[in-house]
């Protein structure tokens, strides 16, 4: 191909040798520059993955005009600090780049000089590395143990959801409670909330200072729903906490089913769902009915049995703390269909753990019922740091409740075929107003040391005579000589035991 002289006045195109950078990837070909362009020859260090080494690679081709960057690209190789890449350009004649061989300068691969390391430094580094590894292993082990412990605690406190909850046909409440947990701490929380949402209120059956009690229905089963006023949140929380206590369930303690809080932003409703006993409270039952000595014995025995379980601390895993009720009265005791008592209302209860020597007193403004307060409570000399004093105060209240029972127990009039009993009355009904003040009760019980009267007819029947003796020992002014719930239970149990055996003991 004839050579073309470059004109000074006007730029011209060049024909260049191209290899590795040809238009259309043509090997050993040619390319033509735009006017003002130049030919180039380049060398570059390329990494070969197959051999794992750096090799030089040369390319030839056409460079764009200077105004499009050609000049800058051709001058870049003049920078002294660049290694591993070089380029040379020419524009004197066609194919001027064929014999150009720019110098190849490989990149710096010389490793940095190693610093001398002493044997002492090596030992120190090895020791530090060992400590770091040991600490890491220790932290991992502790983390795994914590996770395992938390999982076990969660499984223990919140038993697994009963499989029948997944079906449309749920088991009866009695079966749910029996299947839910062997610890006697109630249903799983998720089951409780499910039941609470499905409750259908039927009618109001009672009202008190804490709230209201409703007869409700859950899947064709009757339940009692206690709704708390918003001001009685502490009572709801405490009662729920007591009912959730491990090993709390007992045939003479009101059966707990569920607890939940409902709200829509403008109001909040706190619910406590328990077994329903249509007979009602002991107060209502005695107001409307009379009982024979055998029924009196069963009522008194079951009351003592429930309170003994409450007062008793069970050691083991799981264990049960000792619990004092602090508001024993006839309105807080329900009568079951089988004639037994069931203790209810634990809003003021106190828990005690002897291993930790801790007494958990409810943060509640309620102080109990003044009519049933023990002398040491009225005199404000009860030591809250001694749990036994709370139990003794409970036993004083039990003595008054036994007196209410005994008044309604009829006995035959000697020489006739008729029977007699006293009208129902509250303790101290004849010496204090219907709603006595703290001062009224203190004057009667502490100052005058007055106690409810014991009719002479009670001594004519073995059961009544025994119960009257028990109640007098329970309300003794000296708390330390009062009977315990367990002693009352054993005393009544030894009295004609066939009376208790004939009555079915199954929970209704």
From TrEMBL:
Species of origin: Drosophila willistoni
One Pfam match: Activin_recp
Swiss-Prot/TrEMBL keywords: ATP-binding, Kinase, Magnesium, Membrane, Metal-binding, Nucleotide-binding, Receptor, Serine/threonine-protein kinase, Signal, Transferase, Transmembrane, Transmembrane helix
Compartments (UniProt record): Membrane
Needed co-factor(s): Mg(2+); Mn(2+)
The protein's enzyme class: transferase
GO molecular function, one term: ATP binding
E.C. number(s) listed in UniProt: 2.7.11.30
Tagged with keyword Cytoplasm: no
Bilayer topology term: Single-pass type I membrane protein
SMART domains: GS, S_TKc
SUPFAM superfamilies: Protein kinase-like (PK-like) (SSF56112), Snake toxin-like (SSF57302)
Gene expressing this chain: Dwil\GK21070
TM annotation in the entry: 125-149
PROSITE patterns reported in the protein's UniProt record: GS (PS51256), PROTEIN_KINASE_ATP (PS00107), PROTEIN_KINASE_DOM (PS50011), PROTEIN_KINASE_ST (PS00108)
Family of the protein in this entry: Belongs to the protein kinase superfamily. TKL Ser/Thr protein kinase family. TGFB receptor subfamily.
Entry keyword Nucleotide-binding: yes
Chief place where the protein resides: membrane
GO cellular component: plasma membrane; receptor complex
Domain GS: 168-198
GO BP annotation list: cellular response to growth factor stimulus
Record-annotated Protein kinase domain positions: 199-495
InterPro entries from the UniProt entry: Activin_recp, GS_dom, Kinase-like_dom_sf, Prot_kinase_dom, Protein_kinase_ATP_BS, Ser/Thr_kinase_AS, Snake_toxin-like_sf, TGFB_receptor
Binding site for ATP: 226
Record protein name field: receptor protein serine/threonine kinase
